[in-house]
Specification:
Layout (H helix, E strand, L loop, with lengths): L25 H15 L2 H4 L2 E7 L5 E3 L12 E3 L2 E6 L6 E3 L9 E2 H9 L12 E6 H7 L33 H5 L9 E4 H8 L5
Antiparallel strand pairs: 1-4, 1-7, 2-3, 4-5, 5-6, 7-8
Helix pairs in contact: 1-4
């Protein structure tokens, strides 16, 4: 279904062009989106927003309908990916700046087309989801972008043109967010069923 056929009405910015975007920096794209929502929407709407890191212990997570995909299904196996979920109880919405699905996309559609079923999936590819409230993400996340440097010190993908995100407590803690170790303090970690159930009990 195209974005025109499935246009979503939301107080949260609903056009990609309204969002800051840098390819391969999904975590910063979502941080910027959360900041935009905080600045432009009522507090009660921002409180519905969560940042979601998707990864696993092997750091091999398949997602479909990604614009970077070179195959007919637009499948990409990322080491991690980051999206924002707007928890509108009527129909939760996913904001993924890297998908070819609608933007935003109903969670039900994103789960079926973008995440896919895990029943026949090899265990090393099964995804875990670290869900962090938007305000917590804005106030705790930091990245000096060193994870995007190759062995020679060059950029694997050009960085954003704004300064790295940091907090008073840290200049680089991105690996804590990518980790699916449940003992790490940021947000809560779920398997696929738990993630879907958190936002829409009809999907688990």
């Amino acid at each position: 279904m195209s974005i025109e056929e499935n246009k979503v009405t939301s107080v949260v910015p609903s056009e990609r062009e309204q969002c800051t975007y840098t390819a391969c920096y999904c975590e910063e794209n979502v941080w910027k989106l959360c900041a935009l929502v905080k600045d432009s929407c009522p507090e009660e709407e921002f409180n519905k927003c969560s940042c979601v890191f998707i990864s696993n212990d092997k750091r091999q997570i398949p997602l479909w309908h990604q614009r970077a995909g070179k195959n007919p299904e637009r499948l990409v196996v990322w080491d991690y990916h980051v999206i924002m979920v707007y928890n509108e109880k009527e129909s939760p919405l996913v904001y993924d700046l890297d998908t070819e699905l609608s933007f935003p996309c109903h969670l039900k559609e994103y789960a079926a087309a973008g995440i896919g079923d895990e029943k026949s999936m090899h265990s090393k590819y099964k995804r875990m989801f670290r869900v962090i409230p938007g305000q917590e993400f804005l106030s705790t996340f930091a990245s000096d972008r060193s994870h995007m440097l190759d062995k020679e010190g060059g950029w694997m993908s050009p960085p954003p043109d704004y300064p790295p995100i940091k907090t008073e407590a840290s200049s680089n803690n991105i690996q804590e967010f990518i980790s699916m170790d449940k003992s790490v303090k940021h947000g809560q970690v779920y398997n696929l069923s738990g993630f879907l159930h958190k936002f829409d009990t009809s999907l688990s």
